[in-house]
Design brief:
There is one protein chain. The protein has one helix at 76-81; strands at residues 2-5, 11-13, 22-24, 32-45, 48-61, 70-73, 88-96, 102-109. By secondary structure, the chain is mostly beta strands. It has one domain (2-109). The strands form 3 sheets. It has a 4-stranded mixed beta sheet, with no helix packed on it. Strands 2-3 form a two-stranded antiparallel ribbon. A two-stranded antiparallel ribbon has the order 4-5.
Amino acid sequence: MRIVNLTPHAINLMPEGETRIATIPPSGRVARCSVVRRQVDIFAVGGLAVPVNKTLFGTVEGLPDPQVDTIYIVSNLVAQAVPNRPDVFIVDDVVRDPEGRIVGARALAHVGG
């Protein structure tokens, strides 16, 4: 099974009960959803006029077509945009360091119907 990391970060897989870590480096290609923002309001925050946008996420960019024996790890947003792709996964059950930063994940998950 070939695993392609379509995020900009290395992914450390740390299954429960294992002492080893499998690191999946970024592929150099990032799958993203296009974004359209439309300002709908302005809030006053600390003396600043802060725009409030309505954000619409559109088509997925950078996600290759399905390939035999290949899975793709993407962001949650991208995975939600393509729920019928059985080859698209997200990291699941994250592991955090003492400062709360994500350092790995115990599993992968499929988002879809």
